[in-house]
Amino acid sequence: MTSLRAMYVDFFHLSEPPFSIAPNPHYLFMSSRHREALAHLIYGASGGGFVLLTGEVGTGKTTLCRCLLEQLPETCDIAVIFNPKLTASEMLAAICDEFELVYPTTDTSIKTYVDILNAFLLRRHAEGRTAVLVLDEAQNLTPDVLEQMRLLTNLETNEQKLLQIIMIGQPELRMMLDRPELRQLAQRITARYHLVGLTPAETSEYVLHRLRQAGGRETLIRKSALPLLYRLSGGIPRLINVICDRALLGAYIQGESAVMRRTLRTAAEEVFGRPEKRAETANPLIDRLVTITTVVVGGIGLAAAIYFLGPEPLRDTLGLSSVEHGSAVMDAGQPLQH
Q1: Domain region containing 243
Q2: C-alpha to C-alpha distance for 110 and 93, rounded to whole angstroms
Q3: CA distances (Å), origin 239, targets 54, 60, 202, 231
């Protein structure tokens, strides 16, 4: 697949694959929602306590956070935890590792880690530096670890908090923070933002942006295919990337100069592992009407089968006599009278 990807990059005269799912800030598309989210993160990072960024899978949370980290001043020490499925002690040890702090291996008590972190943060504060802790995939944090993170924000001077914590997670993180036992932590969140998928217009702009960044033609994916792309992906950037990457590969294999609607649909079928033919006309109301119509028509058909072909006892049970049956048959062939 890697060699084929390199071939389609050459075939379409691209500098690199434009739809990689790697969180590369170079390809960050700043929709209005992403700009708002970044503004919230920057504002929160300048204070103390917690900053919360949530969003559906693939909406660009990690990429946005990396963009934030690139904008932080050099006087900021940064620790990033990508796998927070840890105990409280393991989490504190991981934070010390990220800040390159030395701690005794024989004493792994929580107090030891907190004392080392406190001394480090006070030194950095005296030097005019700040410290930021980023917890990615924070929906995997246990309540015990979240409570320990809250206690870390108690490390402070008379003027300010010594540690800024940025939590990034899926929507269930918000529900977790609504628990009564975590209300003290929730009250310390100074900025929060929930990131959603792109709009249809933003989806088109997103695709053109990534093509331009990779040196590609804006017509490499036909404009007529972009509304279908939105319906197939729901405006989720990661799904857009995966579908478009597979579609470019398909167009290359077929020798086409651009991605057509049929190629895009085929790519989505390969990505999702199922036919996506209904995605283009997917509409809950229409689906409901179709279901109701099917049931009604099916019921009428069943009743007709019983009426004309069923045994006499069953027709009698339904109140349909033989005479009525015959009358109905005769009436069925007569024109309607008005």
Answers
A1: 2-14+199-281
A2: 9
A3: 18, 11, 14, 11
